Model the fold of this input.
Amino acid sequence: MTGLPPSSKATVVCFVGTQALGNFIMYNLAAASVAAALGGARLGIIYRDDRPYKAPLMAMNPAVSASIAIPADKAAALPLDWFDPHCADAAWPEPWRALGLHRPDVFLTPGMLDIGTSIPPIPGLHIPPAMAVELGEALCRLGLDHGRWFACVHMRQLEYLYRHGADRHRCVDPQSYLPMIRDILFEQGGQVVRLGDPSMTPLPPLPGLIDLSRVANAFPLQAFAASRARYFVGTDTGATQLASAFKTPSASTNALGVGIWNDDDVILPKTMHLSDGRRLTRDDFLSTGMLTIHRLRPTGLQMMDNPPEQLVAVARHMHRVTTDCPGWREAPMFLEYGNQTTIRIPLPLRDIAKETRLTWWSSRDDAHDGGSDNHIVRFPQ
Done:
């Protein structure tokens, strides 16, 4: 246990040593939750600036008091000696030193962080107001109507520059999502913003579809879209964690693990069979740990993607449960402060799948048209 006098303003420093978008987001939120639990401690984050989304995300984490970006070159490093108060060579930038972050009360390493080690309630990301105005205008210039709601979608593929060919089981054919996109546009009456990168398969031009994967260096714009969407439907990847971090109602489809953590969010896993032909059930996912963020998978699995009609049904469900959002989503400040002065180290690991009121989308009604919810199961029960 580590404790602080009630009158003290704690300082927490975290080294977020990860590259993947989803992990970078979740480590940020876990660190923010520690700072919040300590009564709104000052939080300093050190990270390696080797991905284009890292610096913008620093500006979107309202818990961060100051940050230090280490150059992408692995030869460059921030010496731990700098934290020695007697180190004459320490060159801490301002406001880092002024905030007392050079002498932290708590230092968090990457191995301590996970969305499961966050201290409830899990904080959220927030687009700064000045940035939001600029990004909103940019979305409108691309053709998005500010007077109508929109949904965000994302479909993971193999050709992403930084994860080329990695974990093909989490990838999908984006064509399978086209019936869902058309349903959002022409049946639900919404607009669609597709998130992604330029390596992805282009989608056919459709009225009301804005494809941000065709826009270079668009991460801030994509983050803003995720924060203002009525709902989000994505695959098992970092863009889904981005939407969840903004508290946007989200559905993780073709999922192999839990990458969402807000009540009432939806998980629709891929259909999986063991080598003996037995189909994995919800209880199998929970008991084997496959729904944890570490994605423990039995060997010899055969995986089948969600069929288009199932994706349509999920999107219709998301449309029904978000009737309180008839336009662009409002963005309140989500950082919640606790009143603790003590935390436990190591941070206890919680099973998000068992502690959050998520919605498990049953695959027994693959052809269900979304007219009712008798094919979904709440868990934990």
In short: The chain has two domains: 2-117, 129-332+351-379. The longest helix spans residues 21-37. Confidence is low (pLDDT under 50) at residues 1-7, 364-375. The first strand starts at residue 2 and ends at 3.
